[in-house]
């Protein structure tokens, strides 16, 4: 009989090495997306940074070059993701430039106008749903065929605790996050056999520009920081490929939400 220990079914697997992995981050110009990009650059990811502001994205690329000189140069894609046609063309353009996509982080989002539903305009409602729900659905749909062909990939949705509970004055925003959760559940089961994982990070309040004009500085100082969210994102993506994190909830101890 051999003395060599056989690996057991649940033997620990090494953490995933993210070096050189092609990671698309939507809404990378500010707030959470920006912090995630800076954190993943430290892991050596080949980042594709998406937002409308080319100036802010270029500033971020320069900062990545200084903070993570070992990382591959980050690529910029300027796109208005509230336009479904832009979402449709974005993923093929990235695949053409980068060869493939390892990780899609659906992060871009807006609160929309915070008010009772009867005071919302049709345009307010449409824009919030288009950016927060239709856009990640299209980007995921267009990204999956490449991942299926490679039998590998991770979709990481930056979601919110409002995906499960609705608050007054935030109807379209809550609906968009409930919808993102619903699509994630469907895709998880559709793709489980293809080695593709759908991760969800469900956040309480995070101090980012999304709160400008909504919350005062005292309230904001009690919120999570974008860097704490970025660390949680890196934690999820560094797990072995055998590990699936459908939901990770991150909230501030000090803030109510
Ligand atoms: N902050 C929170 O308390 C909190 C809590 C739970 C969940 N979240 C979610 O976290 C995500 C990021 O939020 P954040 O707080 O970081 O917000 P943020 O600071 O306002 O940043 C939003 C990002 O989305 C981009 N964006 C906005 N409209 C866009 C459009 N039409 N097309 C392409 N990109 C667009 C912005 O870039 P450009 O303006 O340059 O386009 C920016 O990079 C959102 O999905 C949000 O719902 C946030």
Entry keywords:
257 residues; 7 helices; binds NADP nicotinamide-adenine-dinucleotide phosphate; alpha/beta; Rossmann fold
The CATH architecture: 3-Layer(aba) Sandwich
Write out the distinct hetero groups bound to the structure.
NADP nicotinamide-adenine-dinucleotide phosphate
Low-confidence stretches: 1-7
Q: In angstroms, what is the radius of gyration?
A: 19 Å
Integer average pLDDT: 94
What is the CA–CA distance across the termini?
58 Å
Question: What is the CATH class?
Answer: Alpha Beta
Instruction: For the largest sheet, list the strands in their spatial order.
Output: 3-2-1-4-5-6-7
The CATH superfamily appears as NAD(P)-binding Rossmann-like Domain
The main β sheet shows up as: 7 strands, parallel
Count of discrete alpha- or pi-helical segments spanning 4 or more residues: 7
Order of helices and strands: EHEHEHEHEHEHHE
CATH topology: Rossmann fold
- Tell me the strand percentage band: 5-15%
What is the overall shape?
A: globular
Structural class determined from secondary elements? alpha/beta
Explain this structure.
This protein has helices spanning 31-42, 54-67, 84-98, 122-150, 171-191, 217-221, 226-238; strands at 22-26, 46-51, 75-78, 103-106, 153-160, 196-203, 248-250. The protein is an alpha/beta fold. It has a single domain, classed as NAD(P)-binding Rossmann-like Domain (Rossmann fold), CATH 3.40.50. It has a seven-stranded parallel beta sheet with strand order 3-2-1-4-5-6-7, with helices on both faces. Strand 2 (46-51), helix 2 and strand 3 form a beta-alpha-beta unit. The structure holds NADP nicotinamide-adenine-dinucleotide phosphate (NAP). Residues 27-33, 51-53, 56, 79-82, 107-110, 131, 158, 160, 203, 205-206, 208-210 line the site of NADP nicotinamide-adenine-dinucleotide phosphate (NAP). NADP nicotinamide-adenine-dinucleotide phosphate binds at residues 27-33, 51-53, 56, 79-82, 107-110, 131, 158, 160, 203, 205-206, 208-210.
């Amino acid at each position: 009989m051999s003395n060599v220990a056989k690996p057991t079914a649940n033997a620990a697997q090494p953490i995933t090495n993210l070096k050189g992995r092609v990671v698309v981050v939507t809404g990378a110009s500010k707030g959470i997306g920006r912090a995630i990009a800076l954190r993943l650059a430290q892991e050596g990811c080949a980042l594709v940074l998406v937002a409308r502001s080319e100036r802010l994205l270029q500033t971020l690329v320069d900062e990545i070059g200084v903070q993570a000189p070992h990382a591959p140069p980050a690529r910029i894609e300027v796109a208005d993701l509230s336009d479904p046609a832009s979402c449709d063309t974005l993923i093929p353009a990235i695949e053409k430039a980068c060869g493939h996509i390892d990780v899609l982080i659906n992060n871009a989002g807006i609160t929309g106008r915070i008010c009772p539903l009867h005071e919302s305009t049709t345009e307010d409602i449409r824009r919030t749903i288009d950016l927060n729900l239709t856009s990640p659905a299209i980007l995921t749909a267009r990204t999956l065929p490449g991942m299926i062909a490679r039998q590998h990939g991770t979709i990481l949705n930056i979601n919110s605790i409002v995906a499960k509970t609705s608050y007054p004055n935030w109807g379209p925003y809550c609906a968009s996050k409930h919808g993102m959760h619903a699509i994630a559940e469907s895709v998880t089961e559709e793709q489980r056999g293809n080695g593709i994982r759908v991760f969800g990070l469900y956040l309480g309040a995070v101090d980012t520009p999304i709160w400008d004009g909504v919350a005062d500085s005292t309230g904001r100082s009690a919120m999570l920081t974008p860097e704490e969210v970025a660390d949680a994102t890196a934690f999820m993506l560094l797990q072995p490929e055998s590990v699936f994190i459908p939901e990770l909830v991150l909230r501030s101890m000090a803030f109510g939400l």
